[in-house]
Amino acid sequence: MTKSQQPTLLSSVRMAHFVAHGSLRLDAAVPAETNAEAIEFLRRGVPGVPFGSKVPDAYPEGSFPRRLLDIPAVAGALRSLVGPDPTVDHHAVHIREPREGQAQPLHGDAIIDVRTDAFDVQLMYYPQDVTLDMGGTLSVPGSHLRRTNESDTGRYQNLLGQSRLVCPAGTVVFLHHGLWHGGRRNDSDEVRYMFKIRFNPTVRQRRLWDTSDLGDPRVTEELSTTFPWYEPATGRLELYNRVLLWRSLTGDASFDLERWVTRVSNRPQESAA
Ligand SMILES: O=C(O)CCC(=O)C(=O)O
Ligand SMILES: [Fe+2]
């Protein structure tokens, strides 16, 4: 990255959006010439890298993935979410074949991973325009903190508020590792490509973004978002887990929404007189 290409860090409002939705979308972040090159690169297949590889080892300077990761908006989002020097968990090229006749069941990639104070991100890069019939990734906003068994998730069909990705070429989406998602059926005549890299943080995920707007009322508004599939009482579970994550990310142990966590953490130690 040259000096003129400093990473563009996320604001607190956008971080709060990620914490509520479990994803963050950067539309057309990658330039057209890079997207054209990507199709050839992905078609050839991308050999795996060892778990825990450092980015410069996995993707040497000048390589296609490295240039993708050096785009200021991509670099800034990654740094804001998992910090400097994350390691590569794995990567994969995900192809939805033309008229393949089936979809991937809804799933979380790491449903056993119930950390409340850390998370991995999955970068998903779409080098082509993805139209509604091309099998864009389906995801369920706000599902990342719901703990279920992996195959149970696959039994759910068409949750209210689910989102089927339609995006311009060069879009990059960052997913929290728990988000429910799945590649959809490709009903078009075109191959749909997607390149995914999962990153593990190597530092504590605390205030890694541009925190200058931390007091903006839109932060709490974002964190209070509810989604159509939330049932009123159990939907509080999502808000509760979200508060724990936001407390951990900011270090502000007093942050709460509707006092849910405050109530649950009330364990007075003093004996009655
Ligand atoms: O192909 C897709 O859209 C989704 C693939 C997938 O589930 C993944 O990358 O974890
Ligand atoms: Fe997946």
UniProtKB/TrEMBL annotation:
Superkingdom in the source lineage: Bacteria
Alphabetized SUPFAM superfamilies for the sequence: Clavaminate synthase-like
GO molecular function ontology, one term from the record: 2-oxoglutarate-dependent dioxygenase activity
Key words, A-Z: Dioxygenase, Oxidoreductase
Entries under InterPro entries matching the protein: Phytyl_CoA_dOase-like
Any Pfam family matching the protein: PhyH
Protein name as it appears in the record: Phytanoyl-CoA dioxygenase
